[in-house]
Amino acid sequence: MGIITPFSFALVLRSINAYTKQFQVNYKEKDNAMPLLHFSKSQPCKSSSSLKASYEDWLISHGLTVSPFHMRWQTSLFNHQFYNWGRWKPRFLYLWFSIGMIFGIAAMFGSVILLAKTLIQTLSQMLSEAPTGQNDQMLQVVVPGVNLPISQLSYFFIAILISGVIHEVGHGVAAIREQVRFNGFGIFIFIVYPGAFVDLFTTHLQLISPVQQLRIFCAGVWHNFVLGIASLVVLFLLPAILFPFYYTGAGALVTEVAEDSPANGPRGLFVGDLVSSLEDCSVQSVEDWNSCLTKISLMPQTGYCIKASVLQQLSYPSRARKAVEASQLCRTNMDCQKDFVPSLCVTPSLENQTRFLRVKHPPQPDMLFVGHLLHLQYTVSLSSFIPRHNFLSVDLPVVMETFCKYLISLSGALAVINAVPCFALDGQWILNSFLEATLSPMVVEKQNRELVGFLILLGGSALLAANVALGLWVVTAR
Q1: CB within 8 A of 6, min separation 6: which ones?
Q2: Spatial CB neighbours of 304, under 8 Å, sequence gap ≥ 6
Q3: Catalytic residue among 168, 178, 279, 436
Q4: Model confidence over 193-234: pLDDT tens digits?
Q5: Element holding 45 (H helix, E strand)
Q6: Mean pLDDT of the chain
Q7: 86 with 172: CB under 8 angstroms?
Q8: pTM (two decimals)
Q9: Cα–Cα distance between 453 and 458 in angstroms, integer?
Q10: Where are the alpha helices (DSSP H) in 62-89?
């Protein structure tokens, strides 16, 4: 999960780097003090030491830090831009980050309630004999290849990186607004997850008031929330944005058919086909396609009105296809009495969970599908956007739509998870500043306030860890 706070993670990294630099200095001092006797065979060691020192100097000069499972790059190139943002319209920024502070405090309490509710749902799902899906849970553990398609990993990582950058921009601009020195901005990769961080002058951060600290610490989750709302607005307005190039409401456009799909074949679906209906269920968008498949799966198998004179000829597959394509749908024989020619309602004899389905995609002949509807749903990709011109890509609206959904999901998750009062997350610093601002008149001893904060952080960390552990078990074990 890309839900480790880059901001608080950077504070830990700075202390690690300071220790590393001290270790390197001591090592070099010892190395220079050691040799009193020189041997010709020691020359390769000097070359190796010199090469290592040159490599370390090159990394430092370029702002790079490399360690096991972690790589980061820090620069001051963007400092001028950050200071321009932090000094732009001071009254507006004061109001903006004050609203963010209120949101961050509310999110801290709300995240605990949400995690507690999610934990109860997960436990009830684990203990139930017939476990249900996790679709009703707002927070889910994401495992690539299990509940995250490998083909969509690029969306996932890019959305995490953008969400992390926006998160850190919030911290940086808020810090400059509160007169905290801004040292630099950077990007890191932890194992495979990308993120960002800002380097702030810790002494300045400790000298300002708790309310000012809250504006800085809450700015990250506030900006993630705003990014999620902005992505939601873009997703909602996407048909209007793409209207000059694409239109909607005329069907579901096929954009991809998997090689192992039951819809793949000479009488199946092809890229560019426009699906208009599934049986008697009209399809005008991808949402209609999914709802129709769900509706059909919950209802008994549909029958077809077949003339009595044709019924005896249906042992030939070609004639069976023609008879089905030309017939109307029915549930009972009474539905077939509208014609003057005697007809019977014939229902295909199928196994459990298997469906016979007629898919209309004019001007092509109907596709007759036999199999599990989920297999059809997961192996055919569709879009609600139909290009007005042949040179337009059928994939562009899908890419934009999918990316907006990932931004909404991941940026929202960062806002919620980072607000949890948990060690190493923004919630830790939000809680500490909140307790300093509210408990100081009642709890005079700072040590007692720190004890209260520690106990709350311990509970929040345990709650988050339990959600992650049980969520992983549910996703991977079921």
Answers
A1: 164, 167, 168, 188, 195, 196, 197
A2: 323, 324, 327, 328, 329, 330, 345, 346, 347
A3: 168
A4: 899 999 999 999 999 999 999 999 999 999 999 999 999 999
A5: helix 43-61
A6: 85
A7: yes
A8: 0.82
A9: 9
A10: 79-86
User: What's at 81, amino acid-wise?
Assistant: Q
- Cα distances from 163 to residues 224, 235, 321, in angstroms, run 6, 17, 52
Q: Cis before residue 363, ω within 30 degrees of 0?
A: yes
Taking CA atoms, 242 is separated from 116, 159, 228, 274, in Å, by 41, 22, 20, 19
pLDDT of residue 351: 74
Q: Are 324 and 304 in contact (CB under 8 A)?
A: yes
Q: Which of 277, 265, 194 is nearest to 4 (CA)?
A: 194
pLDDT digits (tens, 9 = 90+) for 236-248: 999 999 999 999 9
Enumerate the domain spans of the chain. 80-240+403-477, 251-397
Using one digit for the tens of pLDDT, what is the confidence trace for 84-138?
999 999 999 999 999 999 999 999 999 999 999 999 998 988 887 555 555 567 7
CA distance 233 to 226: 11
Residue 129 has what pLDDT? Answer: 59
Q: Which residue has the tokens 């509310």?
A: 106
Decide if 129 is catalytic: no
Question: In this structure, what token pair is assigned to residue 253?
Answer: 């456009």
User: CA 287, CA 279: separation in Å to the nearest integer?
Assistant: 16
Backbone angles phi, psi at 304, to 5 degrees: -135, 135
Residue entry with tokens 């229902």: 347
Residue 454 has pLDDT above 80, yes or no: yes
Residue 300 is given by DSSP the state P
Query: Among 147-151, 154-158, 445-449, which stretch is predicted with the lowest mean pLDDT?
Result: 147-151
Q: Using alpha carbons only, give the angle 48, 27, 62 rounded to the nearest 5 degrees.
A: 65
Alpha-carbon gap, residue 44 to 331, rounded angstroms: 87
